[in-house]
Predict the structure.
Amino acid sequence: MDKPLRTHFSLIKLIAWTCIFLGLILFFSLHYPHSSPSNRLKYLEDSDWKYQILNSGRPKSRNGFRVLVTGAAGFVGMHVSTALRQRGDGVVGLDNFNGYYEKSLKRAREDLLKSKDVFIVEGDINDGVLLTKLFKLVKFTHVMHLAAQAGVRYAMKNPGSYVHSNIGGFVSLLEVCKLMNPQPAIVWASSSSVYGLNKKVPFSEIDRTDNPSSLYAATKKAGEAIAHTYNHIHGLSITGLRFFTVYGPWGRPDMAYFFFTRDMLKGKQISVFEGLNGFTVSRDFTYIDDIVKGCLGALDTATKSTGSGGVKKGPAQLRVYNLGNTSPVPVSKLVNILEKLLKVKANKVVSPMPANGDVLFTHANISLARRELGYKPTTDLQSGLKKFVAWYLDYYKPSGKKSSV
Ligand SMILES: NC(=O)c1ccc[n+]([C@@H]2O[C@H](COP(=O)([O-])OP(=O)(O)OC[C@H]3O[C@@H](n4cnc5c(N)ncnc54)[C@H](O)[C@@H]3O)[C@@H](O)[C@H]2O)c1
Ligand SMILES: O=C(O)[C@H]1O[C@H](OP(=O)(O)OP(=O)(O)OC[C@H]2O[C@@H](n3ccc(=O)[nH]c3=O)[C@H](O)[C@@H]2O)[C@H](O)[C@@H](O)[C@@H]1O
């Protein structure tokens, strides 16, 4: 082949590769609409942001922890960050503010945290460069990892987002943690959904968890296996918390108690699922303040990671706990309580549970968490929903004035 022809072919090859590359970027950005690439390094280069991150991460008490809270603009993340800061720990949040549910609620939670001196870095846990820079800036002693694609039923619509955040994101975070010196101790949110189709109640940590009924559950189960690996190879201290249907003020609009409230107030129809042959569907609903106490208990009892720079120096702690209320309530009863609190009659239909990944019941055995974390839930569904409804009516009141915790 003569030289001009070769140059011509090289040019065509270059154009073809560029098209493939751009096509791949387009493909991934369409498939992961919730994971806007977090090119947020400006946070760490601009001295004003740097100041805010340093200030937020600085403990206010002498023995305070320095905690990175992922998913801090989320429901549980906001409450845990508030409690940690209130007791004097340094807290830096990280959240990608994705659009899975109303972003304005995440921004309102961010405002609230700002008023309590907690700064949230906007970025994705898959962004290893950003994570590394953050860790270099603040020597985190602990990571409270709550960022995830939550929700059981949404996995039918957007499976990729679960793999991206709950598997890819978790690995990305652990990869950065393992290289730190000293490594932080990690506490992260698993889920009651790992018990899947188990029939034995109450669910106990020693029960099998290998029959998940949703992709969400499968990614949380994968997270537990991944935690085992990083603990085993790299000496990371890791504690997984299996939360059971958490509810309360500042909650998640995709959850039944939240959208039942919204739809009941609008007079819209709600569907209450039932199992085959009229089987009552129930959940071990757990109030947010109880969950927060469980998270703090897990952080306080976490021992140090043993590795440094990716190399394990000795065995490290690996734990899993149920955080539930140990008192399951039928979904129909949840609706009755809401009717009384909202003073409206629900326009409800009882319908067979669709094949959407939901399980029929959950019920936590919490003896282990009680013994080892001092976990002791104190809020029943009626009292917890009362607080949720008060917040809801205030937050969504027509004047638009935002509530406080
Ligand atoms: N709320 C519950 O009932 C419940 C029950 C069991 C387990 N969990 C788990 O607890 C954790 C917190 O749940 P929640 O109810 O607060 O959910 P949430 O959706 O309100 O909070 C999760 C936050 O993580 C952020 N996020 C998601 N993917 C991210 C990514 N790739 N990078 C950075 N940020 C990301 C989201 O923007 C969101 O603000 C999750 O891991 C969830 O799976 C929750
Ligand atoms: O405990 C957990 O691990 C899980 O708890 C909740 O999942 P879930 O218990 O399914 O909570 P909701 O989505 O709020 O559903 C509560 C109940 O209402 C029922 N439901 C839901 C929607 C609906 O339209 N009708 C209805 O009866 C569901 O079947 C379920 O029994 C969270 O959404 C998950 O992120 C979390 O992982």
